[in-house]
Amino acid sequence: MEEVLPVDPRKDVTAGADKKAGGDGTEIVLSVKDLTVGFGSNIVLDKLNLDIYRGEILGFVGASGTGKSVLMRTVLRLLPRRSGSIEILGVEYDAVSEEERMALDMRLGVLFQHGALFSSLTVKENIQVPMREYLNLPQELMDELARLKIDMVGLAPEAADKFPSELSGGMIKRAALARALALDPDLVFLDEPTSGLDPIGASEFDNLIAKLRDTLGLTVYMVTHDLDSLFSVCDRIAVLGKKKVLVEGTIEDMLACDDEWVKSYFQGKRARSIVREDEKAAS
Ligand SMILES: Nc1ncnc2c1ncn2[C@@H]1O[C@H](COP(=O)(O)OP(=O)(O)OP(=O)(O)O)[C@@H](O)[C@H]1O
Ligand SMILES: [Mg+2]
Asked: Which pTM does this prediction carry?
């Protein structure tokens, strides 16, 4: 598994690439164009378009089964696409060599919806999986790095030698986040990071994500069903529906949208109570 790369693995393969910018000059770090993905006759995504800007926390929502996880896995090249292009950190995936692709992959962190951690490995060993896969570091240095990541996500040092079965749901999510951050990525993909957590645990996790974005300069792509997260930490929201991004923008844009699903989701009873709490806090 350990591999010595022929180039400096931290080399920025995108350094020479043209930085793409959105209309207001913000750098685009992920650009998906006309993406079509399907399984047999089931077309899940049809000519979908999406841009993500550097430094933002993008909340990605949509009814269950609409293809949120499929989109994330396709962007990470874990699923094949029928057509369309994907550009990450200024690099077109299809246009790079295997070696450059590996360097690019290192700049992406992932927290999957299911199977967040390897159950047979301790937290420390889980965090070291990406390090072993991409870097050739001495064990002592990997131990030190794992300690740093454990601290960064707010886990106690003792968590390092625990197995996932010995952790609470919230601790597992934090440990999985530590693993996603193992290689100091630029862009992290989080698939339902707060599902299964109680509201307090979920809100602490949201605050952690926001703090890490601010301190590490991360860009965060977060699939979520959690309205609290959408209202409190997401800068922008994209809604998946009808095999496309139906609408994207701020919470205000969502509240003004007249699509039936978007309306019932963002203007439902639960959403209205969050808006009221926000207004109370602001006054
Ligand atoms: N590997 C696969 N093979 C065949 N069909 C798949 C595969 N992965 C996903 N699908 C199908 O793609 C569709 C979208 O699934 P996906 O997991 O992306 O939904 P989701 O939006 O993430 O839902 P949830 O909110 O419940 O997590 C579903 O119809 C699912 O059955
Ligand atoms: Mg999913």
From this structure: 0.87
The letter for the amino acid at 240 is L
Half-sphere CA count of 105, side-chain side, radius 13 A: 16
To which residue do tokens 């440990």 refer? 175
Q: Each residue of 120-167: pLDDT tens digit?
A: 999 999 999 999 999 989 999 999 999 999 999 999 999 999 999 999
Q: What are phi and psi of 158, to 5 degrees?
A: -65, -20
**Residue at 130: amino acid letter:** P
Match 């860009």 to its residue by tokens.
Answer: 219
Minimum CA distance residue for ligand 1 atom 18? 67
pLDDT at 16: 42
Give ligand 1 pocket residues (Cβ under 6 A). 39, 44, 62, 64-70, 113
- For the chain, which ranges sit under pLDDT 70? 1-25, 115, 269-283
Inter-helix orientation angle 169-180/139-152, to 10°: 130
Nearest to residue 182, comparing CAs of 140, 224, 143, 223?
143
Say if residue 276 is exposed, middle or buried (CB neighbours under 10 Å; 0-12, 13-18, 19+): exposed
Nearest CA to ligand 1 atom 9: 70
Distance between Cα 223 and ligand 2 center (Å):
8
